[in-house]
Amino acid sequence: MVLTFLFFSGIAIGSFLNVLIDRLPQERSINGRSVCDNCHHQLAWYDLLPLVSFILLKGKCRYCNNKIPSVLPFVEILTGVIFVSIWLSIEKTPVEKIIYLGIMACLIVIFFADAKYKIIPDSIQVALLIFSFLLFYVGNADLRSLPNQILSGFFVMLPILLIYLATKGRGMGFGDVKFSFIIGLLLGTISGFLALYIAFVIGAVIGVILILAKKKKLKNTIAFGPFLVLGLGIMLVWGEKVIEWARKIYGL
Ligand SMILES: [Zn+2]
To answer: Considering its fold, how many domains does the chain have in total?
Structure first.
């Protein structure tokens, strides 16, 4: 019952995340009705039912018959699936679990906004920061450890900041720098660095695959935010296991 509710809330929220993914990077207002990307016809409420409209309209715009990008229903289903799996796999209090869902929603927006527009919107970083402080506050209300968390944020931010400065912003954007601060704040220093490590490894593998598949040339850049999202997400959910493996492999 709870899981069914979570899945459908996830789909509904995912449909809102689609709006954020498309509008925040372009600094468009998130109020106002959605229009078709192709014919700019204003969409009615029955065109905007998450998933249902996509299926009924067979993935095409009602007005111009243009194909609706399948990333839209994908984000909706993904949000539903992530909500259910987070609820099942994390051993936390219900309040903490809800904060985790908020964090995951932010991560979905960062992933797709950065992949599409190469921008990590500031507003979503602020939302993520608020969820991080909430989690900290609910999890252990010991405010004396807050300075440590903030220090962890600076430590984890440092390598990304150095890359940003060394490449004059071509390797990383300043959005990645700010995002890595939140990663350190959320995870602490060790898990934060492991999240960066995971991001670099996945990024390198995907980069090589894209170059071999001739989708990208060496001089092209790919947004780094999606890989940071994967690193952070993996450490948030499976952090303890990853640390265990790291200890075994590297003998820490
Ligand atoms: Zn249309």
So the answer is: 1
